[in-house]
């Protein structure tokens, strides 16, 4: 009996070992070399040819005219997202090379895909209930723009791509404004695959410490309460503990260079312009890794690989809960009556975490200039308990309407709604509708453009109920649909990355009609004669305000600005809101 057991065990080991195939890919990150664009695509093509259960797809274009690829790994040759979802599988999307000089994820994903498909140490098990989809290179134009002089703070790999894409856009600010062809293709992929979990891989020069990899977690504040709890209590702790079991530990992304992390580390919520924040708009658990550039490229790739492995393992083990919390989160969002548009860090709430840093050296001598500089003393590593702030207060709310009415002239917005399969209908006839309209009272904009726009900040508004003329063909968008968070973030002018903030509605910000100091007089006089109450107010102001009394134009302006003469459309945000 004992002998039989040994024979059985022996054959089990043989079967297990034979199920592990040799690696197909030869990566050179150990020699500080990251793959070129062509090498990356050739390698994924090789995996596609070799394995039935993997495929490399072309999914739309990018700004440089080359297709955006999507590599799909399943346990069987089924690559239709709808069927995959029907089978109850969980979908994990990994995006790489959005900043092309930050290529760890490109190399790590290649090795990871190779290892999963060849079943290294039983890794094929990850695909039993999960489908892993990978964008090999997102910023193709940036990766093709390869040089040793692209990353001034980075010594390895020797050559990398460039941060901007072919259109010189920072693609990780482009997800809501969606200027690039890359972001359009991404929107379609996101809508088609609806990933449950999303990871975007990056590299940072923002800090110096003992960790090869740092983590920007899904921002709890950006999710409905149920998902917020799941992030805080399950997902994030699992990432830290999972990494701790391997060679590379994880630390939250450390924000300020030269600022001593001993004073505390704050998590900053990545808004929807960033990939992970954009994923959050669709109730997908969106996160980023940031490898630390001062570490050897080998450790950066390996730690990124380890993170992907931990995340894929967590997704595989908790698929059902992940999908359930998402579904509940969507329901929770669809029932909202108030929606938070602004956040502030809560400095009263923190937890202590272990941090392995280097002492800050205030007066190091620069080897370049011979002058004192701020830096870190690498001969003085320390381990300390530091405060970690990751609780955000919701500081301003808007009421959630039932419908938005969008005039049909906003074709660029309609195109974006269509890319994301947003549901809407169109008015069948010209109609005067009773709606709530927001007026933009104030905002600031930069003097120079930022990513191709004059982004508006510090937006203040007031609302008025009005009867407004809309026309046949204008859009009626029901807000309480699955993509409600996207709609609120994009259509509420105060929300951080709304269409208004990114200049899609600048056409309403200046006046079309005005008055001439000479030409307006006949109408002004007629108005005063026909409106004795208003005339009394105007006379009162002339009596009490001596400057006003002496100023001809100011007196006409008072009449113009405070009567029906003032155009209603000036600074009126043109999207009508209908409340229940
Ligand atoms: Zn980056």
Q: Classify the helix fraction into a percent range.
A: 25-40%
List low-pLDDT spans. 13-17
Please state how the strands of the largest beta sheet are arranged side by side.
1-2-4-3-5-9-6-7
Which homologous superfamily in CATH is the superfamily of the largest domain?
Answer: Zn peptidases
The value of Rg in angstroms is 28 Å
| Overall CATH class of the largest domain | Alpha Beta
Largest sheet: 8 strands, mixed
Number of helices: 16
- Give the termini distance in whole angstroms: 75 Å
Portion in strands: 15-25%
Q: List ligands, each type once.
A: zinc ion
Count of distinct strands: 19
CATH architecture of the largest domain: 3-Layer(aba) Sandwich
Mass-distribution shape: globular
- Summed up, the domain count is 4
Mean pLDDT: 94
Explain this structure to me?
The longest helix has 21 residues, at 297-317. Helix 4 (104-117) crosses helix 9 and helix 7 (225-244) runs antiparallel to helix 10 (319-334). The chain is globular, with a radius of gyration of 28 Å. Helices cover 32% and strands 24% of the residues. The strands form 5 sheets. It has an 8-stranded mixed sheet. A 4-stranded antiparallel sheet has the order 15-18-14-19, with no helix packed on it. It folds into 4 domains: 31-254 and 265-334, Aminopeptidase, CATH 3.40.630; 351-388, no CATH class; 401-508, no CATH class; 521-561, no CATH class. The N and C termini lie far apart (75 Å). With 580 residues, the protein is of the alpha/beta class. It binds zinc ion. Zinc ion binds at residues 99, 102, 172, 202.
């Amino acid at each position: 009996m004992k002998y039989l057991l040994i024979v059985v065990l022996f054959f089990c080991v043989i079967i297990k070992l034979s199920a592990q195939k040799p690696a197909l890919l030869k990566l050179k990150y150990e020699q500080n070399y990251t793959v070129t664009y062509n090498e990356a695509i050739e390698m994924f093509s090789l995996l596609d040819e070799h394995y039935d259960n993997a495929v490399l797809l072309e999914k739309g274009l990018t700004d440089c005219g080359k297709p955006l690829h999507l590599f799909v790994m399943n346990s069987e040759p089924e690559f239709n997202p709808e069927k995959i979802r029907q089978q109850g599988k969980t979908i994990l999307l990994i995006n790489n090379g959005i900043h092309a000089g930050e290529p760890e994820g490109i190399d790590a994903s290649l090795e990871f895909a190779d290892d999963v498909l060849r079943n290294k140490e039983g890794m094929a098990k990850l695909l039993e209930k999960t489908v892993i989809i990978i964008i090999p290179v997102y910023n193709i134009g940036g990766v093709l723009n390869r040089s040793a002089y692209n990353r001034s703070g980075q010594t390895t790999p020797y050559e990398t791509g460039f941060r901007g894409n072919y259109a010189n856009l920072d693609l990780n600010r482009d997800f809501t404004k969606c200027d690039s062809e890359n972001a359009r293709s991404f929107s379609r992929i996101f809508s088609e695959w609806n990933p449950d979990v999303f990871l975007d891989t990056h590299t940072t020069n923002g800090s110096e410490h003992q960790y090869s990899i740092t983590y920007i977690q899904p921002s709890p504040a950006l999710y409905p309460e149920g998902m917020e709890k799941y992030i805080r209590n399950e997902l994030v702790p699992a990432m830290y503990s999972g990494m701790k079991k391997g060679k590379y530990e994880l630390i939250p992304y450390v924000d300020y260079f030269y600022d001593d992390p001993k004073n505390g580390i704050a998590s900053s919520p990545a808004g929807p312009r960033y990939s992970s924040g954009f994923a959050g708009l669709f109730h997908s658990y969106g996160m980023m890794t940031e490898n630390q550039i001062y570490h050897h490229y080998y450790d950066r790739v390996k730690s990124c690989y380890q993170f992907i492995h931990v995340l894929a393992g967590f997704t595989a083990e908790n698929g059902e809960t992940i999908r359930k919390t998402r579904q509940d989160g969507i329901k929770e969002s669809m029932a909202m009556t108030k929606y938070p548009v602004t956040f502030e860090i809560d400095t009263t709430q923190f937890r202590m975490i272990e941090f392995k840093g280097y002492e800050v050296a205030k007066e190091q001598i620069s080897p370049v200039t011979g002058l004192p500089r701020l830096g870190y003393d690498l001969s003085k590593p320390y381990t300390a308990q530091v405060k970690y702030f990751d609780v955000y207060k919701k500081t301003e709310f808007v009421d959630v309407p039932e419908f938005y009415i969008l005039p049909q002239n906003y074709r660029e917005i309609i195109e974006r709604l269509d890319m994301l399969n947003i549901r809407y209908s169109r008015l069948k006839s010209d109609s005067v509708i009773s709606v709530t309209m927001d007026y933009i009272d104030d905002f600031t904009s930069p003097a120079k453009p930022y990513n191709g726009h004059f982004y508006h900040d510090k937006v203040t508004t007031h609302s008025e109920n009005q009867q407004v003329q809309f026309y046949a063909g204008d859009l009626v968008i029901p807000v309480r649909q699955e993509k409600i968070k996207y709609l609120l973030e994009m259509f509420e002018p105060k929300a951080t990355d709304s269409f208004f903030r990114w200049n899609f509605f600048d056409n309403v910000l200046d006046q079309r009609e005005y008055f001439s100091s000479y030409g307006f007089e006949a109408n002004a006089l007629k108005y005063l004669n026909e409106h004795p109450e208003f005339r009394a107010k105007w006379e009162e102001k002339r009596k009490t305000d001596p400057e006003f009394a002496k100023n001809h134009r100011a007196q006409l302006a008072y009449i113009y600005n405070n009567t029906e003469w003032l155009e209603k459309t000036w600074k009126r945000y043109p999207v009508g809101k209908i409340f229940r």
